[in-house]
RNA-directed DNA polymerase from mobile element jockey
Amino acid sequence: MLLHNGLKSPEANPSSQIFAVRVNSELSNTKIIKAGVAQGSKIGPILFALYISDVPKQHNTLLSIFADDTAILARNKNHNFIHLALKHLKTLEDWFAKWKIQINAGKTEAIMFSNSLNYPLPIKINKLIIPWSQECKYLGVILDKRLTWKPHFLHIKKKFRAAARKFYPLISRNSKLNRNNKLLIYTAYLRPVLTYACPVWGYAAKSNIKILENQQNYVIRMISKANWYFLNKDIYNSLNYPTFNSFIKKLSVNFYKRLENHSNEAVKSIPVYIPDIKNKRPRNILI
């Protein structure tokens, strides 16, 4: 189960330590900002990290924080375990109120990763009900209830096409750029859109992975000006360019090697296991 929310951090005006309010042509008197960190300042992230360094934690839940994006994670085979997360959430509510950090309930989502159709009681934050979601977006990745990753792939497909349209005059068949420069543009600007977070979703069903693979194949065929009867594998061999599947596997191998000595608590809690084709787990991409 993941409870994801955005925090409204107490940050000050980026340009000064005073502020005023303008309504139409009327300007209020200036007021001094007595607390907060200038948004966009170099020291701002460090000060905010220090400010929330004593955020309450519990042994039976995991608190994952990236800047002001926070997720509470809990794992159990019994759905009634939700009371553990609720207990932690109540502790966090008191702590946020004490230090004047507002929880953005409108951006808060609750999701349970399970095949079950039954849900426990709804979660409340500051007396507002947080409904159970079928999917949620966390750090740019869409997590669906059954972790099929198809909603994420469809979202990335749309995002990739929008980015490819911007570069179309440079990488189209009629572009006067040479093929190496076209490949460089694709590698530097477009391929990262497709492969973001691939060590996490790389074990998905082949039919779903195909959604993204087809996007790369289309662009590579356009860059190489390949006719319809050319096979994709022959095109990649001629260009000496990695296929989509081989590239995400290479990224995943490097990623999982670095996990062994990672200092992040959420990463440390990931069970060590040997990939098994019978069980759908992220490391199966290494098989």
In short: The two ends are 27 Å apart (CA to CA). The chain has a mean pLDDT of 85. The CA atoms of residues 14 and 42 lie 11 Å apart. The first helix runs from residue 44 to 51.
